[in-house]
């Protein structure tokens, strides 16, 4: 079996998937891992990736590369999203990734993909295990610096996609700075998110959507909370359904709770505790949009996302 690896480096986290692919193209997960590195910390204010953020990211990637080598990975792809697209010193980041990834596959470096490319990869991964008759789907990939929306179905793939400049870290750093955020900050954040969502409504055929799929850390954490899990359990989260009405009770409480209270919950990663309030504001506004413009009244949560889409692309390059 061929061993492949995918790395997704976003504004908030860096994630790894090592997979084994058999000659028939069947994929088996070997290892998944996520670390909060906050690569995009302060980029909004300074326009540059911070030295400490780069060091945290390097440390995580060094560990990932060591694991790839020990697992016999033959081919690796790494994508970098919102934070690196916006940074003036992104060359320093890409040189670091080239140095490290070259130990696995010479000549490989991280790729700065567009929001639209990110959305298409996320779509392919997110719907892979879902009921294909439940489409058309709108996959929502809520990140730290940006959120991608992509509409499509299993038969025809992506129909249209858009990347919006809103994410849980971006909103926290720009607007919801108090802990917990003040009522005024929350309202300003909502106005900003609604403005971003107006672009989604204008660009995508939301009226065709039957199922809204949420992927990435905010959605998976909300699923764990909704299910009352005592520890994070990917198998329980993948494919779970979050009813909008019930979910609003959870998001409302998270917005009002300080980060210390959120961090005390075992299913909320300590590195996500200070930004999931902002993520909850985004989720609430997406729910309002979905109720008004789509046929959905719940989210289906997918543990699979851009990493799985990247592995699929490497497995079937045609």
UniProtKB/TrEMBL annotation:
UniProt xrefs under CDD domains: ASKHA_NBD_MtPPX2-like
One Pfam family recorded for the sequence: Ppx-GppA
Signal peptide, first to last residue: none
Residue ranges occupied by any Ppx/GppA phosphatase N-terminal domain in the UniProt entry: 18-310
Protein name as it appears in the record: Exopolyphosphatase
Species the sequence originates in: Corynebacterium atypicum
PANTHER family noted in UniProt: EXOPOLYPHOSPHATASE (PTHR30005), EXOPOLYPHOSPHATASE 2 (PTHR30005:SF13)
């Amino acid at each position: 079996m061929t061993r492949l690896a995918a790395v997704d480096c976003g504004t908030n986290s860096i994630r790894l998937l090592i997979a084994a692919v058999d000659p028939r193209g069947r994929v088996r997960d070997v290892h998944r891992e996520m670390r909060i590195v906050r690569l995009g910390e302060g980029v909004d204010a300074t326009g540059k990736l911070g030295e400490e953020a780069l060091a945290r990211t390097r440390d995580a990637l060094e560990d990932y590369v060591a694991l790839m080598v020990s697992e016999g990975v033959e081919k690796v792809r790494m994508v970098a999203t919102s934070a690196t697209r916006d940074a003036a010193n992104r060359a320093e980041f890409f040189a670091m990734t080239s140095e490290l990834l070259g130990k696995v596959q010479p000549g490989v470096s991280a790729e700065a993909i567009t929001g639209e490319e990110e959305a298409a990869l996320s779509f392919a991964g997110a719907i892979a295990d879902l009921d294909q008759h439940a489409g058309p789907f709108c996959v929502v990939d809520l990140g730290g610096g940006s959120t991608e929306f992509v509409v499509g179905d299993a038969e025809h793939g992506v129909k249209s996609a858009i990347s919006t400049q809103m994410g849980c870290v971006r909103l926290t750093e720009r607007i919801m700075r108090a802990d917990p955020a003040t009522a005024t900050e929350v309202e300003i954040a909502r106005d900003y998110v609604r403005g971003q969502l107006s672009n989604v409504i204008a660009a995508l055929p939301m009226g065709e959507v039957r199922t809204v799929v949420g992927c990435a850390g905010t959605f998976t954490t909300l699923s764990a909370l909704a299910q009352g899990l005592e520890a994070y359990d990917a198998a329980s989260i993948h494919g779970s359904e979050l009813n909008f009405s019930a979910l609003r009770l959870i998001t409302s409480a998270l917005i009002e709770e300080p980060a210390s209270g959120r961090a005390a919950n075992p299913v909320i990663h300590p590195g996500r505790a200070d930004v999931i309030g902002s993520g909850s504001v985004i989720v609430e506004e997406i729910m309002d949009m979905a109720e008004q413009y789509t046929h959905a009244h719940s989210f289906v949560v997918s543990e699979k996302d851009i990493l799985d889409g990247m592995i699929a692309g490497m497995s079937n390059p045609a």
